[in-house]
Amino acid sequence: MTHNYDDDCLFCKIIKGEVPSYTVYEDDDVKAFLDISQGTPGHTLVVPKTHVPDIFAYDPELAATVFSKIPAIATAVKNSNPDIKGMNILNNNGKVAYQSVFHSHIHLVPRYTDHDDFAMIFKDNSGNYDEKSYTEIQNAIKAQF
């Protein structure tokens, strides 16, 4: 894979070794390192070694390459601590979706208990939809393929 870098990007600087990181895995295509915030202990970021701002910039080859590495890295994180009971795997795209560094990255957030310092809320809005509204949304998405 050809690597393109953005000289102003924090993650590109980490990939090139210009900014230190706590790397847990690296190969020709991806680098995985501890998220400095450590949402929970072991919180790891997986980044492609080529600069892409978000998931919408992936081509099929990059997606296959990056996402094929996630299970092994996630398993290594999980196996690193017997107290890890599960894991959230997240990819935020765009500021409104909480993306703060605009170099695509996948969060691996180990979960220890349902009371650890991490939360996700999926509100049930199903009462606001009927057959017609679900079908409109479905058709709008299907029309994009």
UniProtKB/TrEMBL annotation:
One of its GO terms (molecular function) is catalytic activity. A motif (Histidine triad motif) lies at residues 103-107. It holds the Pfam family HIT. GO terms for biological process: nucleotide metabolic process. InterPro entries: HINT, Histidine_triad_CS, Histidine_triad_HIT, HIT-like, HIT-like_sf. Coiled coil: none annotated. Residues 10-120 form the HIT domain. This is HIT domain-containing protein. It comes from Secundilactobacillus folii.
